Amino acid sequence: MSDVEYRQSAFTPPAGATDILLVRHGESAPAVPGRPFDLVDGQGDPELAPAGRVHAERVGRRLADERLDALYVTNLRRTSETAAPLATRLGLVPQVEKDLREVHLGEFEGGLFRQKVAQNDPVIQRMHSEGRWDVIPGAEPAEALRDRVAGAIGRLAAAHPDERIAVFTHGGVIGEIMSIASGSLPMAFLGASNGSISQIVVTAERWIVRRFNDTAHLDGGLDEQPAALS
Fold first, then answer.
1. For residue 9, what is the DSSP state?
2. What are phi and psi of 136, to 5 degrees?
3. Which domain of life is it from (predicted)?
4. Which terminus of the chain, N or C, has less C-beta within 10 A?
5. How many of the other CB atoms lie within 10 Å of CB of 18?
6. CA distance 224 to 185
7. Are the CB atoms for 174 and 192 separated by under 8 Å?
8. pTM exceeds 0.85, yes or no
9. Contacts of 50 by beta carbon, 8 Å cutoff, 6+ apart
10. Contacts (Cβ under 8 Å, ≥6 apart) of 226
């Protein structure tokens, strides 16, 4: 009988890899018919709702003791508002990565998308069945979304080898990143909750999924519900 034992080993990021925490912004202000959101570069830019500010504080507490080398946000204010409590705790200034902004929703921008989802509009049904955003008139083509998201993650990984960073971004973008990493259907990962944390480890050869929709720091636990985009 051999005395040698081989225990299961803990995951260790490969040399040169970048560990990326993907934080979905907190809940944003409600859409009200007849009062569209302000637009930034053609995209809805609501501020955080009061519940979203609670999400931001809880994210800040959850990640305050983690080793983080940099914080990133997009050019839409709900991400910078969500990152603010953590940035204050860590003394880090978030950098902007515009190419991780939300999916462009074309004619459904400005809050109309939420109304169409609530109404189970036929265009929304077709969007899900075909796995493409651009069934919405004027919305971002799937290939363009994938190219810009993959390019942004590649740039961040190249800038932060052997480091861990937190990226405050959007539900559609997190879904796209997870789809690229896992090889899943395009919209298989659209269920990220506001304030949730997902994680990938990026190497030159592959993207490794480490977690998706971690909501342990939020009230709802396993019952925390996903929310519509924007």
1. P
2. -75, 130
3. Bacteria
4. N
5. 23
6. 23
7. yes
8. yes
9. none
10. 171, 190, 191, 192, 193, 213
Q: How far is CA 124 from CA 79, 114, 194, in A?
A: 25, 10, 21
Give every CB contact of residue 88 below 8 A, 6+ residues apart in sequence.
60
Amino acid found at 129: S
Owner of token pair 């202000």:
29
DSSP 32: B
Contact 124, 117 (CB under 8 A): yes
Residues 97 and 74: their CA atoms lie apart, in Å, by 5
**Phi–psi pair at 124, nearest 5 degrees:** -65, -40
DSSP secondary structure string for all residues of 52-64: HHHHHHHHHHHHT
Q: How far apart are CA 87 and CA 189, in angstroms?
A: 27
